[in-house]
Structure formats: structure tokens, C-alpha cells
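Long-time lurker, first post. I've been practising inverse folding by hand and with some scripts of my own, and I keep getting stuck on stretches where the C-alpha cells seem ambiguous. Below is the full C-alpha cell string for one chain I'm working on. Before anyone asks, I'm not after the true native sequence, just a reasonable design that respects the backbone. If someone could post their per-position residues I'd love to compare against what I wrote down in my notebook.
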């Protein structure tokens, strides 16, 4: 009798764990959807939150810092981390050399090894800092952070061991030209005078293999990416299915654009960086303070972890006195705190006060190396 009761209780426990894991996954995806952070997705409703399951985002090291355009992916990764997923950031030491053609009409410049190493280090520092600031944010609210810690991986660590013949015979063999030529990024480039290099054409193969490697070695079941990554992500999902028989998933986030619809990113020359060496804390703060009334609600939903009910209350207050910029200031404070921590936010607030003639703020800034 005792053995039977113990066996039954273990069975009930397993059922409960699966139920709560599924509920947690659904809640996280629902939150992303309600905040407007879901653009395209595979059938993520079938995603199971397996114990220790991971989700990943890739960042190619084409600069020594990430920018505001990358912040949506980081925040989505944090949302899923809060739901118990193992967050993985892949810094593309290998794929960065190949160059992603998505969303581009010209080929990227080849990355030299010295600049590549500097960029990998800069992106690693940025990601580590933001995830630590998020832990500090949770701690300040009395929330103990027990979720899995961020893993930062460099895909050069597994690609450097793959020979050219192995790549062609074992990896590229699984991909069909018909589907690759049908991708929008390829179609656009083939219509230009410059065309597309074989190197860029093969980029989706490299990214797909990354997903397979992460699935096999890090229990990864979900990939996040920007809206222009849909073709690469679906290629990875299909490749994992072919090689393992398992169904993995992908979703894309909306691209961050200006009021005119222009993509915000370094490739179009208007980047706002997440490194204080390239964009100061004050400049980042002011960038979000200048958010238009038409965009501020959307940006509060995208860039903060405030409950939607609280965002509605902030917007009501803002709409009653828009000249006070209540919503924009709230947005700017939350983003600056997440990116640069409490000290970075205070630098930005003090610098802002100085520009408006606050002598006490000027005294506080004495000793600061850089604030404007």
C-alpha cells in the first residue's frame, strides 16, 4: 500500500509539474503578445516548457556594442527568463564573418579578426550588464531572482571544428535551393546590380546549424529574432526537424522603427547604442524622453516590465497634462535603469537637471567622467 501510494504521488507530481510548466510558458507568450512583441511565430502554442528548456537569441558582432534596435530581443529574452526558461545569447563569432544578408541591399564588409574580438567582448559586456541590472531591479522590488542565469556562447567555438568538406557533405546537404531562393532577402538581393555572394547565400545554413547545436547540447527549443530574421529562423526549425525528428519553434519581434517607418539600427546610420562609451547615459535618457505621444504607449509596453494596467494609468495621467511628459519620463527612466543601472540613471537625471539650471545637480556631477 505504501509503495503504491508513493508511486501514485510521484505520478501526480509529474502531471502537476507539466501543467504548471505549460501554464508558465503560455503566460510568458501571452505577455509578449499583449505587449505587441510577437510579430511572426511558428505554432508556439504547442511549445512545452520542459525542465531546463532554453530559448536563444543571436547577435552578430558587427560592432563593439548593441543598439536600441537589439533591446527588444533582450527584453523578450528577459520575459522568458522570468518564466523559467534558460536564456542563451549567441554571439556570432563565426556567423559575423559570413554576414547576414537579411534586410540589406548591399553586402556587409568583411570583419577582421582584431575588430571581431573587440566586438565579441563589447557585446558580451553589454548583455552581462543588462541582465545584472534586471536582477537588481527585481531585488529592489523584493523579488528573489531564482531563474537560470544567462549563458553567453560564441558560435565560433563549434564552427571552428567543422571542416569545409564536412560542411558541404554533412550540413549543407539537408538544404534545398528551391526554398533558399524563395526567401525574400534572397529575391531582393538577386534583383540588385551587385547581386549576392555565395557566402551570404549560405548564411541561413550557418544559423540553422546553430539552432541544431543548441538543441542537442543546451536543450534549446525556441529561437527569438527580429522581424527580418523570419526566413533564417524557419530554416533552422525545419533543419532541426529533419535531423532529429523534434519540433522546435521560432518567433520574431517587431522591428523598431522611427515615426516615418525607418528601421533603427547602425546600418542606417541612426543607432542609439547601449554602451555609454558610444551613447552616454544622458543621451539614451533623452532619446526616450523625446518619444512622440503617438509612440509612447507602445514603447512603454515594449521596453518596460510595468504591468499593462499601470501603463494605462500612466497614459491617463499623461493625457491629462501632456506638457509634463509624464509617460516619456517614465519610459526613459525604466530604459536607462535597465541598460545602465541606477547609477547611470542618476547621471542622466543630474545632467538633465544641469541643463535646466539646477546648481545642486551640477555639484553632484563633479567628478563624473562623462555625462553628456
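-- Answer (accepted) --
I ran through it position by position. Result:
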Amino acid at each position: 500500500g505504501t509503495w503504491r501510494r508513493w508511486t501514485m504521488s510521484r505520478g501526480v507530481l509529474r502531471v502537476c509539474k507539466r501543467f504548471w510548466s505549460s501554464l508558465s510558458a503560455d503566460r510568458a507568450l501571452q505577455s509578449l503578445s499583449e505587449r505587441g512583441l510577437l510579430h511572426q511565430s511558428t505554432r508556439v502554442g504547442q511549445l512545452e516548457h520542459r525542465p531546463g528548456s532554453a530559448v536563444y537569441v543571436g547577435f552578430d558582432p558587427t560592432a563593439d556594442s548593441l543598439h536600441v534596435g537589439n533591446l527588444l530581443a533582450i527584453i523578450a529574452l528577459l520575459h522568458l527568463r522570468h518564466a523559467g526558461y534558460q536564456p542563451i545569447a549567441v554571439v556570432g563569432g563565426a556567423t559575423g564573418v559570413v554576414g547576414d544578408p537579411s534586410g540589406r541591399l548591399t553586402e556587409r564588409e568583411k570583419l577582421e579578426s582584431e575588430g571581431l574580438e573587440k566586438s565579441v567582448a563589447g557585446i558580451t559586456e553589454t548583455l552581462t550588464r543588462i541582465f545584472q541590472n534586471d536582477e537588481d531591479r527585481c531585488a529592489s522590488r523584493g523579488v528573489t531572482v531564482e531563474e537560470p542565469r544567462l549563458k553567453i556562447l560564441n558560435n565560433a567555438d563549434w564552427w571552428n571544428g567543422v571542416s569545409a568538406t564536412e560542411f558541404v557533405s554533412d550540413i549543407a546537404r539537408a538544404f534545398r535551393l528551391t526554398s533558399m531562393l524563395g526567401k525574400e532577402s534572397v529575391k531582393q538581393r538577386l534583383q540588385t546590380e551587385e547581386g549576392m555572394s555565395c557566402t551570404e547565400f549560405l548564411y541561413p545554413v550557418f544559423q540553422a546549424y546553430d539552432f541544431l547545436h543548441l538543441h542537442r547540447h543546451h536543450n534549446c527549443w525556441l529561437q527569438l529574432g527580429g522581424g527580418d530574421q523570419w526566413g533564417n529562423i524557419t530554416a533552422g526549425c525545419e533543419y532541426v526537424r529533419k535531423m532529429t525528428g523534434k519540433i522546435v519553434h521560432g518567433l520574431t519581434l517587431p522591428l523598431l522603427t522611427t515615426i516615418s517607418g525607418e528601421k533603427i539600427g547602425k546600418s542606417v546610420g541612426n543607432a542609439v547604442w547601449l554602451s555609454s562609451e558610444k551613447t552616454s547615459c544622458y543621451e539614451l535618457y533623452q532619446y526616450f524622453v523625446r518619444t512622440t505621444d503617438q509612440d509612447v504607449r507602445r514603447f512603454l509596453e515594449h521596453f518596460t516590465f510595468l504591468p499593462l494596467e499601470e501603463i494605462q494609468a500612466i497614459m491617463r495621467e499623461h493625457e491629462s497634462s501632456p506638457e509634463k511628459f509624464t509617460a516619456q519620463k517614465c519610459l526613459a527612466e525604466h530604459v536607462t535603469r535597465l541598460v545602465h543601472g541606477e547609477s547611470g540613471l542618476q547621471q542622466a537625471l543630474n545632467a538633465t537637471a544641469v541643463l535646466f539650471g539646477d546648481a545642486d545637480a551640477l555639484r553632484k556631477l563633479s567628478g563624473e567622467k562623462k555625462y553628456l
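A couple of notes from the structure itself: The longest strand covers residues 220-226. Strands lie at 40-41, 54-59, 86-91, 151-154, 220-226, 249-253. Happy to go over any region you disagree with.
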